[in-house]
Amino acid sequence: ERMAKERKYRRRSDSSEHRTSGRKRKDRERSNSKRRDRKRSRSRRSSRHDRRRSRSRERRRDRDADDDQRRGGRGREEGGPGGTARKEEVSLQREERSERDQQRRLRPDSSVLGNIMDDTSRTNRRVQGEFWRAAEQRLQALPARAGARVRDSFSTGVKADVQAQMQLPYSCPECTKRFGVATQVSDHLRSMHNIIKHASLINPDKQIQTIEEGERSKS
């Protein structure tokens, strides 16, 4: 019984191997046939393209011959007046093309223009930076009024203190808002009105009274 089972099992395994190898062979054949078809279609396509090209060439030749006959001369091949006229026409076209090329060369390239614009914007940025730095230095060098509490280093000569903050001496030139410090005005102009104006260039509307001056005026 055991021997019979082994024989049966062996037979089954052999048949499965045979089956798989057959499948592989079929797959291989299929892929080869596909490859063959592809090659055939490619060659067919290329030959079709060649035929089309030759046809267009013939058509062009016929058209040229008709033009020559219309001009009343013999064919270009024979070297008649039609042929010379054609040559002149070609030379004229060539001259026109060369002139156009020359004009194009003289015209500035768009990429070059872009680079120039980049350079100018970079220069502007640098100059602007220098201006802002110089303004900061000038402001820092300004002496603070006696008795004034220095709130920021960007406001104009008169430094704002608590009392001045309440008075709001600075007004926005674009809207009705009022501010106690020049930097607030410059920040507001930049964020709300898209105007860049340094704090050193903004002057207060009404005179700020320092604490000492306020006391003096009261007495």
Write the layout of secondary structure elements.
Elements: H1 2-71, H2 81-106, H3 110-141, H4 162-167, E1 170-171, E2 178-179, H5 182-193, H6 211-218
Antiparallel strand pairs: 1-2
Helix pairs in contact: 1-2
Would you mind describing this structure in some detail?
This protein is an all-alpha fold and 219 residues long. It has a domain at 142-218. The protein contains six helices and two strands, in the order H-H-H-H-E-E-H-H. It has a two-stranded antiparallel ribbon. Helix 1 crosses helix 2 (81-106). The protein is flat and about 120 Å long. Residues 1-20, 59-108 have a biased composition (Basic and acidic residues). Residues 170-198 form the C2H2-type domain. Residues 1-124 are annotated as: Disordered.
